Amino acid sequence: MAASLPESAKTVEVELLGRTYRVACEDNEREALIQAVAYLDGKMNEIRRAGKVMGAERIAVMAALNVAHELLSVKLGGLDVGQAKRRLSALESQLDAAIAKQEKLF
């Protein structure tokens, strides 16, 4: 039995290494998908230009391994994007409060 897509999901055409693929994507995730496709396409083209790997499938596997390695390097390096965003938000709130106090003085 095929999984049903949410009604908000639409099919988006993307291009990787000159080949077109149709991907189900919700409207609010479209921009992130486009950015991911651009990033992956760039990685795949780098591998193809290097000339060491031939064939779209092998290039895709090598690109996937490279991207997975980058992701794990970031995770193992201790960078937690969610935590960083929360910390930045808290700092922004503190700065807003400090600026508001300064504006009251003048």
Q: Mean pLDDT, rounded to whole units?
A: 84
Sheet with the most strands: spatial strand order = 1-2
Give the H and E element order.
Answer: EEHHH
Largest sheet: 2 strands, antiparallel
> What is the quaternary state of this protein?
single chain
| Uncertain spans | none
Radius of gyration: 21 Å
Number of helices: 3
Tell me, briefly, the overall form.
elongated
- Structural class given helices, strands, pairing? alpha+beta
The helix fraction, in percent, is 55-70%
User: End-to-end span in angstroms?
Assistant: 68 Å
**Strand count:** 2
Strand content: 15-25%
Give a structural overview:
This protein is of the alpha+beta class and 106 residues long. Helix content is 63%, strand content 15%. It has 3 helices and 2 strands. The protein has helices at residues 30-50, 56-76, 81-105, and strands at 9-16, 19-26. The chain has a two-stranded antiparallel sheet with strand order 1-2. A hairpin with a 2-residue loop joins strand 1 (9-16) and strand 2. Helix 1 (30-50) packs across helix 2 (56-76). The longest helix has 25 residues, at 81-105. It is elongated, with a radius of gyration of 21 Å. The mean pLDDT is 84.
